[in-house]
Amino acid sequence: MGRSIFKELVVIIAIPVAIWCGIVYFDLTPDESNFTLSIEKEERLGELMTQQLLIEHPEINTPTLDTALATITDRLLTPLKESEYRYQILVVDHQIVNAFALPGGHVVICQGLVEMIESPEELAAVIAHEIGHVEQRHIVKKLVKTLGLEILAGALTGGDPLLISELMKSAASMVFDRAQEREADQFALDHLLKSKINPRVIAGFFRKIQQKSTALDQKLAIVSHHPDLPSRIRAALQYKIPRDTRFEPLEIDWPAVKDSLRKRDKPAQNAPDPIPDQPAPFR
To answer: In the sheet that 88-92 helps form, which strands lie side by side, from edge to edge?
Structure first.
């Protein structure tokens, strides 16, 4: 009897001691970086950030550009019928050479990048890469990890323009890790193949960026903080394309697209610049 009572006392004492040790010696709090927003909240956050961006950097619309962009996006979005996102792809009035994705399927192309690109297939490659970041939810996961859910929730409920502008800047200048970049590159290669566009166009585009970056042009935001271009070029060149693959050229007069940008009437701009002037990566 005494031995039985002793065992019960040991158990009673051991359980709270074990719980206390677990709390003290092990981090049992959830990792916020593993949490993310619902698709609906992510889309709403992306809408708010895009609206703030367009206040200060208007969307560029010319008949020639709009037709070209529609042709490219239609080709790219056709294989994405099962995607949870409703993509909005737009070109904004900014001379910096960059492209980036905002939460919820918003892909932003800066005018400087369009003017540098030499074919519609190159622009399709850039957009496919950004779609890869969206589909992998890299943007919103990075924002949650960097800023926390509380700040993102505050932006959604409060609608504070200053907070939303800061979030937009963070997303526009976001640096992804190499694993995330490889995932986005791999998605782009696979997706271009599904879209009947030669995936190896990515290698030519990266090589061009690499050559231009030697000039250390501060407007070349697409390559800054990205020393891994050689391996990305190599991966694109080594991508295996089935022998029976038939590619379909994008029937777009690209010189006419670029000419339409030069000839358009530019609106007056007095607002501060929400896109960071410091170099940001092609993501």
So the answer is: 88-92, 106-110, 99-102
